[in-house]
C-alpha cells in the first residue's frame, strides 16, 4: 500500500507567498499602493526599544544605568539639599561668629575692679559665639532649602518665585518667636532679600 508523503516546501515559493500576503494586507495603507511608498520613506518598522530617545550632544552619548539614576536622584532630593544647606550654613555662621567675637572681645576694665580674663576664658567665649552663630545659620539654611525644594517640586517650575516664597516662609517662622508683628516683618524682609539675591544670581 503506497504512502502519500507531503510535498516538500520550496523556500522561494514560501517567501513569494509571504511577500504577496504582506503586499495585500499592507502595513500603513492596507490594500493600497501607497503602502510601498510609505515603507520606502519610513523604512523598517521593526525597531529595537522605540521608547528611548537619546539627544544629540557633544561627545559620546551614554545611557545612564539604574545605579547612576539612583545616585543622581539622591543628590537632587530635598533631604540632601537641606542637609547640605545645614552644613554650609553652620560653616558660614561659625566663620561670622569667630570674626565678630575676635573683633569685639569682652575686655575687662581694670579701673572698675573687673577680673582680667584668661586666655582659656576668651577662647571659651569665642567658641560659644561661634557655635551660636553656626547653629542659627544652620537652621535658617536647612529650613530655607527644604521649603524651596518643596515649593519647586509642587510647582514644577524653577524660577525666582520659589526663592521668594521660601524666604517669606523662613522669615515668618523665625520672626514668629518674637510675635506676629515680628513674623510679618521677618517674612517681608527675608522674601525681599531672597528675591534680590535670586535675581542677581540669575541675571549676572
UniProtKB/TrEMBL annotation:
Q: Which domain of life is it from?
A: Eukaryota
In which broad location class does this protein mainly occur, judging by the first location in its UniProt entry? mitochondrion
Which GO BP terms apply?
protein insertion into mitochondrial inner membrane
Q: Segment Disordered: which positions?
A: 1-20
The GO terms describing molecular function are: mitochondrion targeting sequence binding; protein transmembrane transporter activity
Keywords from UniProt, A to Z, are: Membrane, Mitochondrion, Mitochondrion inner membrane, Protein transport, Translocation, Transmembrane, Transmembrane helix, Transport
According to the UniProt entry, where is the signal peptide?
Answer: none
Q: Where in the cell is it found?
A: Mitochondrion inner membrane
Q: How does it sit in the membrane?
A: Multi-pass membrane protein
How is this protein annotated for GO cellular component?
Answer: TIM22 mitochondrial import inner membrane insertion complex
> What family is it from?
Belongs to the Tim17/Tim22/Tim23 family.
UniProt function note: Essential core component of the TIM22 complex, a complex that mediates the import and insertion of multi-pass transmembrane proteins into the mitochondrial inner membrane. In the TIM22 complex, it constitutes the voltage-activated and signal-gated channel. Forms a twin-pore translocase that uses the membrane potential as external driving force in 2 voltage-dependent steps.
Per UniProt, subunit arrangement is: Component of the TIM22 complex.
Q: What is this protein called?
A: Mitochondrial import inner membrane translocase subunit TIM22
What is the native source organism of this protein?
Answer: Anopheles coluzzii
Amino acid at each position: 500500500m503506497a504512502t502519500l508523503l507531503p510535498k516538500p516546501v520550496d523556500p522561494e515559493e514560501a517567501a513569494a507567498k509571504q511577500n504577496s500576503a504582506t503586499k495585500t494586507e499592507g502595513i500603513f495603507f492596507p490594500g493600497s499602493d501607497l503602502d510601498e511608498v510609505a515603507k520606502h520613506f519610513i523604512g523598517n518598522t521593526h525597531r529595537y526599544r522605540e521608547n528611548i530617545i537619546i539627544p544629540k550632544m557633544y561627545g559620546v552619548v551614554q545611557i545612564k544605568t539604574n545605579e547612576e539614576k539612583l545616585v543622581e536622584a539622591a543628590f537632587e532630593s530635598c533631604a540632601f539639599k537641606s542637609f547640605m544647606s545645614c552644613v554650609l550654613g553652620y560653616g558660614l555662621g561659625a566663620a561670622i561668629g569667630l570674626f565678630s567675637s575676635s573683633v569685639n572681645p569682652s575686655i575687662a576694665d581694670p579701673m572698675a575692679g573687673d577680673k582680667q580674663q584668661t586666655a582659656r576664658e576668651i577662647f571659651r567665649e569665642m567658641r560659644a559665639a561661634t557655635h551660636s552663630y553656626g547653629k542659627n545659620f544652620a537652621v535658617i539654611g536647612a529650613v530655607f532649602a527644604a521649603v524651596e525644594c518643596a515649593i519647586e517640586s509642587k510647582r514644577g517650575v524653577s524660577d525666582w518665585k520659589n526663592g521668594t516664597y521660601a524666604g517669606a516662609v523662613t522669615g515668618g517662622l523665625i520672626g514668629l518667636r518674637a510675635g506676629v508683628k515680628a513674623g510679618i516683618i521677618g517674612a517681608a524682609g527675608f522674601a525681599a532679600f531672597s528675591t534680590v539675591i535670586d535675581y542677581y544670581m540669575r541675571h549676572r
